[in-house]
Amino acid sequence: MESRKIIHVDMDAFYASVEQRDFPEYKGKPLIVGGPPGSRSVVAAASYEARKFGVRSAMPCSKAAQLAPQAIFVPPRFAVYKEVSKQIRDLFLEYTDRVEMFSLDEGYLDVTFNKKNIPFAVSIAKEIRREIFQRTGLTASAGVGNSKFIAKLASEKNKPNGLMVVLPEDVISFIDPLPVASFHGVGKVTAKKMEELGIRTGKDLRQKNLDQLIQSFGKMGSYYYKISRGEDDREVESSRERKSLGAEITFDRDRIEKEDLLNQLKYVAVEVERRLKTRDFFGRTITLKIKFHDFTLKTRSKTVSEPVYLAEDLFQVAAELIEEFMQNSEGHFVSNKAIRLLGISLSHPHSTMEEQEPGLFPNL
Fold first, then answer.
1. Could you give the CA distance from residue 31 to residue 44 in angstroms, rounded to a whole number?
2. Is the Cβ–Cβ distance between 209 and 233 less than 8 Å?
3. Which of 23, 73, 199, 260 could form a disulfide with 35 if both were Cys (CB 3.0 to 4.6 A apart)?
4. The domain spanning residue 38 has which CATH number?
5. Cα–Cα distances in Å, from 341 out to 38, 91, 311, 345, 352?
6. In 10 A of CB 289, how many CB atoms?
7. How far apart (Å, rounded) are the C-alpha atoms in residues 16 and 128?
8. Do 119 and 4 share a domain, yes or no?
9. Do 250 and 118 reside in the same domain of the chain?
10. 312 Cβ contact list (under 8 Å, min separation 6)
11. Closest alpha carbon to 124 in 151, 101, 160
12. How many domains does the chain fold into?
């Protein structure tokens, strides 16, 4: 069976690059899309000039302002970004119908069989990057591999404005030296646990057998076992309507104090805001998810009148929900059971928790 040919295209500092394209006075300067600086909002995007100061997406704008006091803050223009994203998607569709837009600024293409009958995926990737620049004035990085996992890793190797190809026979040698923290699905908590187990690179991970990984990481162990061997049979999904989006955090220790729980809830709300903006998603139903130390799972939802997308609004509603949930008969906040997980999801009024994004927030 012919090996699959997957391309992952990732726009370079997309929102910030659009702003620098449309407003030449921003070119070459540290630019932050988000703000204002003193707000509780998060950075939607940072130009490469701002990244040199340590500014990153999803960082609180207040911290970004401290790291780069000379940076220019501009409000996001999502309507513009969405239109540019449509241009890019239309370009992808000229080559294949098997296109999966992961967010406004990145997507996968399965070009194993393509409309232009181009035999080499690398040739398609080069054409697409050239056409993106000609049509939008923006640069993109691309990775080519035989799976989504490899293609995405490859696209990150030569950013910005780079291209990398990983041939099937080179998959293991490509994966082996990479830090496991760079693998999709390995967040900060998991990476720390892996390091404690002596797993720092792809090769270290591959040297663990399936039983060891399942014992240490549960059902995700089988996923880590496969990707360390370059095995990823996920299809490029050409049509997928998202009905909800969220994030959650599993604590390293069970928590019970109100102030502590609310602080953790703020972190989750910030991450949800970041995901909402990168996926251009809005909703009106906020759902709070609580998992107790005995793995009992409870949810509570509230539908508001206007679409929500800011962390502070998400947090306000989620905080109200946890207050209501944990109140005793006298109206005081009481928790008789320690909590091991908190989550927030945003959905359209008629969708359900089961539809929200899996994996959710593995990186705290």
1. 11
2. no
3. 73
4. 3.30.70.270
5. 30, 41, 19, 13, 19
6. 22
7. 21
8. yes
9. no
10. 40, 41, 269
11. 151
12. 3
The reply to whether 363 falls in a domain is no
Sign of CA dihedral 247, 253, 257, 259: negative
Angle between helices 78-93 and 14-22 (to 10 degrees): 110
Tokens of 227: 């990707």
Peptide bond into 160 cis (omega under 30): yes
Structural domain for 220, as ranges: 178-226
Tokens of 354: 């089961």
- For residue 99, being part of any structural domain is answered with yes
41 and 167 belong to one structural domain: yes
Integer CA distances (angstroms), 125 to 57, 90, 137, 182, 220, in order: 26, 15, 17, 22, 31
- What residue type is assigned to position 357 of the chain? E
Claim to verify: residue 162 and residue 189 sit in the same structural domain:
no
- Spatial separation of the C-alpha atoms in residues 194 and 188, rounded to whole Å: 10
Burial degree of 189 (CB within 10 A; 0-12, 13-18, 19+)? middle
Task: Please give the distance of CA 110 from its chain centroid, rounded to a whole number.
Answer: 21
Q: Is residue 232 part of a domain?
A: no
251: domain CATH number is: 3.30.1490.100
* DSSP 8-state code for residue 49: H
User: What does the block give as tokens for 337?
Assistant: 């059971």
pTM of the complete model beyond 0.90? no
| Residues belonging to the active site | 106
CA distances from 340 to 43, 221, 240, 298, 362 (A): 28, 20, 31, 12, 14
Both structure tokens of 311:
């962390």
